[in-house]
Amino acid sequence: MAQTEKKGGLLRKSSASKKPLKEKVVLMYDEIFMTEDPSKCNPRFWEELFLMKVNLEYLEGKLEALDGEELMKIKDNINCLFQHCIQALGEEHPIRVVNALQTLCALIRGVHQKNKSTSGFDIINMLVGFDKAELCMKNLMESLDSLLCAEGSESLKSLCLKLLLCLVTVTDNISQNTILEYVMINSIFEAILQILSSPLSRREHGYDAVVLLALLVNYRKYESVNPYIVKLSIVDDEATLNGMGLVIAQALSEYNRQYKDKEEEHQSGFFSALTNMVGSMFIADADEKISVQTNEAILLALYEAVHLNRNFITVLAQSHPEMGLMTTPTSPIPATPVTPLGTTPPSSDVISSAELPLDADVQTSNLLITFLKYSSIVMQDTKDEHRLHSGKLCLIILTCIAEDQYANAFLHDDNMNFRVNLHRMPMRHRKKAADKNLPCRPLVCAVLDLMVEFIVTHMMKEFPMDLYVRCIQIVHKLLCYQKKCRVRLHYTWRELWSALINLLKFLMSNETVLLAKHNIFTLALMVVNLFNMFITYGDTFLPTPSSYDELYYEIIRMHQNFDNLYSMVLRLSTNAGQWKEPASKVTHALVNIRAIINHFNPKIESYAAVNHISQLSEDQVLEVVRSNYDTLTLKLQDGLDQYERYSEQHKEAAFFKELVRSISINVRKNLAFNTLSQELLLKEFSTIS
């Protein structure tokens, strides 16, 4: 007996002796694409259609193959199909509901493809007709809301979320997607929250729910009142907020785990052995191969939660017992599409051991630690555009955290000590830190470590000026809190001072190249004012008097860099060029640093001459410093502990518009609606005969 093959909606005998036979569902689609009403000849046409397995590929392809004029001729049938899909969502038979959901996805995507052409017809009119749009979309949103909130099939909920993601992402720029007006009017916000607050639903659908919410929040956010923004900003239910935090933590943990696995695989390979043989000549090049695709969608969700909802700040510090204690669910899980690393929701086995123990003692982790680890990975390489966007968004999130009073309270809490193992970029001149030697410290130390790490590792020709400015601003905001609340943080401040001085040195060494692209004086002024902050207020927040002495020691030891900076800004501020004003601001800001250098250097030289010492030790210099504070005169500088608060709409609107566009394209590309096989569905819906 000849075997039957199936391809592109056709059934044919392998002998090829007869004409190919079309699947019944394909024949029914063909009837819809005629100008006649398909139910005229067969009154049960629509009823039968939704019992047939959907052929997504054929339906989408058929829609895309027609030009605008041809599509307009069958507009009534398209409207009819759309309306019958919505009706089918209310059916008791789950198979009809599944087929209706998949058909809607194909319709929306297929019709939208035509909207990109010159025909320019309106997508809403083509799908539902202007006269029925409001009622149809209301019914659609109510049906989706009911399915998401019901205690029924998890597969149906999964398809509902995929349909909604399809609806949101059909256009690259979601603010131009007019269908979303109906999603704004008929809100599904509460349904999303219900998914996030329920452990089972969250485990199965949390990722899609969080990404959907992040995208909806960004619909015309600067042009009109977006109800999702308003509602997200006032959520105060602990279970819901913790649920959202857990989903984000799991996705970021999965990224961290994948990166760690790749790093270990890379280090154990032949190339690693080769680099060990020849020294570390190629270590930077080798590391560039360790690449895991970043996850901007989940990062955007974290940003919106932190930025819009002050109650979410508490979630950052909440430990996540579920991440270590969850067991694999016994209910069937819908298959997820195969997408690049870092873009898919974590699978259940990942969730059960999502956060890797930091050492043998297995300490508790939280969302902030997971986020800091994620940031330390994506901020290593800013040459790639996606990583640059991710790095910038990480710094924006940290900016919001550094401005928040409650966040600062737990960041600086001495009773909340953690061992945070940040990823450090391999560099020839430093050894890799041993993970187990990390001390337990307040979380703010990890934030400062991350900032120092960024400062040290990104002094390069393609200088990321914007990221450096944000980095210095974060440090400044943390210092302002410490000064205001007199928090004496036991931190290795010398590492920060050294990094800042080396940054100034880099700016001076590359003055010509950098000035062609950037106003380096803005950054130089911020760095100098950080030193002014330490000089003026350091006695209120540095941990010990000797820390203040060490600050002076570092300034004196590295005085040549400050002298060179002064010479450079003096030269440019006395010329009538474009840099006159910004350079002169740096000149004025250096007044106290220069006073310290000019006051102590002669005293140190005198001490060396009297004691016949050619080179003084650190202790001897510190002795001179301590005994000569009394005669030092400094000027009081205003506004050192003031800063401009973060504002998205005025400064970051263009960045977020481009970021959301990129996320929309990526989500659309990775959506898969046919991941549920008919066999799996029949097994799940075993009540259907």
TrEMBL record:
Compartments in which it is found: Membrane
Organism: Eolophus roseicapilla
Superkingdom of this protein's organism: Eukaryota
PANTHER family: ARMADILLO-LIKE HELICAL DOMAIN-CONTAINING PROTEIN 3
Keyword set, alphabetical order: Membrane, Transmembrane, Transmembrane helix
Residue ranges of domain Armadillo-like helical in the record: 435-671
A GO CC term assigned to this protein in UniProt: membrane
Pfam families for the chain: ARMH3_C
The protein's name in its UniProt record: ARMD3 protein
